[in-house]
Amino acid sequence: MTKRIVLALTVFLLSTGMSSAQQCGINNTAFKGGERLTYDLYFNWNFVWVKVGSAWMNTDLTTYQGEQAYKASLVTGGNKKLDKFFCMRDTLLSYCSTNLSPLYFRKGAREGKRYYVDELWYTYPKNTCKLKMHRIDADGEQHWKDAQYKDCIYDMMSIFLRARNFDASTIKVGDRIPMPISDARRLSHSWLHFRGRENFKMDGSKEKFRCLVFSFIEREDGENHELIRFYVTDDANHIPVRLDMFLKFGSAKAFLRHYKGVRSEMTSRIK
Question: Fewer Cβ neighbours under 10 Å: the N or C end of the chain?
């Protein structure tokens, strides 16, 4: 569930540069330290939409290994009374350089009775992107491995920060946008499909926004699967306001409930 929430908060292509560390970065114009986003999470149970929890995404300017960096975290909390139907207890953490090159990623996920941890460390030797991967399975077994790529690779959090800085004026309906995302097990073959523009009203609020609409597609076992359809504000902030998630055991939605500390004026707001 959390994987799809975060993947839903992503967009855009790789840039080019003189070195991989520079190549994997992008000029940040979309957010600043101190941004706070809060979401309500709903699950379709017996054809009824039930609120099952909340999610909080925070972004701060801090330091990582002595260098200035952005720290982004996502925490989901479920309703304990509904845990037997839909359990969410996940925490994701990412550090990126100020030009949004990934540095470190950690995910701790509880799915039902299972709990596992993924970690990634990034380095950029000789114009490549190298990943050190660590996974702790639900049974406590640990796995370590290294991978090295010629292209830039991202995780579920760093791609979100990068994606917020895309230029919406350059995309057309039907465009496919590659998304190389890795966890501690594998690199996913996935992309975004741009569906167009729609208006969205925040649940329980008078606020209404013009939005860009995307589908997140993953290819697995020779077939394409739409995992998420999501809506981001059509302005400089590119804040996700609605996520429709198609799960193996049902469907879920996330709606933006509150935001503060945004960098730019919300010009997508419809008055």
Answer: C
